Amino acid sequence: MSPLSPLHLPLAPLRLLPLPPMQLLAPIKAGMAAGVRDAAGAVGRLVRPSQRGIWSYPGRYYIEVRGVHGIGGEQVARRVERAIEEHPRVRWARVNAPSERVVVAVGKPPPSEQDLVARIERAEGQEPVAPTEEFDEWAPEPRHPSGGAKEAQSLAVVAADVVGLSVATALRLTPWLKLPTEAAATLSIIQNHPRLRRLALAITRGQPTEAALPVLTALTQGLATRGGGLALDLVQRAALWREAEAEGRAWAAMEPQLVHGPQDVVAEPIVVERPGEPPKDTVERFAERSMAAGAAAGVLAAPFAGPRRGFAVAFSSVPKAPGAGREGFATSLGQFLALRGVLAMDRSSLRRLGQVDTVVLDEAALRGDRYEPIDLELLGGADPEPTAERLFDLFDPDEPLETRHDNGWVLGSLDRLELTGRTGQQTAARLRRRGSERVLGLARGTTLQAVVGLAPQTVPGAEAVAAAARRAGSRIVLATDRPHPTGFTFADAVVPAGHRLVASVRSLQADGAVVLLLSGNRRALGAADCGVGVHRGGEPPAWGAHLLVGADLESAGLIVDAVGVAARVDRESALLSAGGSAVGAV
């Protein structure tokens, strides 16, 4: 007999209710079960980090989805959406292909993450997925600010650095266990030489070596050296960790303002292939030349100083300063931008700023929705002062094309005015040739007194962006559909915008330019080497951009200004590395 059998619970009050007791307890049981499942999932992710990035917000999940780029990506996205929306507790699901995430709106209680991931995996594997586009270092796979597998790799490298420092400390007491320095040097050479690193990634098909090489290097340095390099690496990893945390906080704060429904999430795949070979990275070019010179010096020194001394001379040319300088600047810039609310959808774009030599400004991103008078031509000896006063009394920037009347004066479109005599069509044509986008007529009674040319107002901060591009020493290109744009005299060249903006960016890249684009055009932003996405309130975000600034053009100006600083950091870090290599060789 159970020890609880003598207890009798008073169920009489429950019998008065229309529902049986078990149905009353069902929601409580379901809630407790969901809580247990979520707790178990959290513990499981700590013990064994998931290979699929998952981020949750009250009422929404962001889950990594694969195979949505390239041929067949649209079909994969639709299958994933249908599979998830079949769940009874899912309200809607939309795939955001540029960030490789499916956004799932859920009810209460929410479904388990394991169930959603299982549905995604089944949908991805229903049909053979076509080969996706290859991502290179100039157009990398987007990394969502909410995090993912990359954070697990950083955690493993930090742990390896700590273990390596502990081992290096222990080896001071037991020096007979020390590995030869050449072992650490070999792995360091593979990690720092661009071509050798790409070869290792190609042999192992990328991910295993990308995750394991920093860990192996850290552990080997702990066994072979005194741990000085590990201390520097640990500082760098801590800075990366702080950058990721700042961007995660910025994403958590901005996400409710960006996503209000499925229409704000859905985005088609973007093309990331670059026309032709990308320009050689200055840091990589320096690394190859420095290590080639070091190898030659080591070979020449070996007959006189011995093979180990010759290898030490060659090892002294391994350039760590350029990468450390670039990472230090990028992590500081990333944290600063995150505090301003800039979302880094791809943090590697901050590491490429020093290579940018062309800044393309989309005129649509610099113009506002309101118009202002920019040109005025008087007709028939009209008095300038009262005419101008009447113009500004009648003009409304919020409704500039509406016809307005006041004391016998009329302001409106020429084709809506009742005129006798002059119609102003020839004058309007001249104003359009001079850059006016809209033309109004100002009449007194039925007599036309003046023709007014209008143009959109410049968004606050647009001048700061142009000035920053000039300070950075970059070529400034204006993308516009107007044949004679006015107000943008700072541009060095003009290219087509709108649906031809992607082709304009590709053409510049084919000529060898490294392009930073400020625009709201999703496809063009994905095609650029660094896309700064602009969107106004009420519009969907510019998914496909590497950096999302919203309507804050001042932050966009800071990013453009950082181009020149990043290039200077790359140059000075290379000089510092060259000096250190020379001292080390001696």
From TrEMBL:
Name of the protein this chain belongs to: Heavy-metal-associated domain-containing protein
Q: Which InterPro entries match?
A: HMA_dom (IPR006121)
The record lists the lineage as: Bacteria, Bacillati, Actinomycetota, Actinomycetes, Kitasatosporales
Task: Name the source organism.
Answer: Streptomyces niphimycinicus
Give the residue ranges for region: Disordered.
Answer: 126-148
Q: Which CDD domains does this UniProt record tie to the protein?
A: HMA
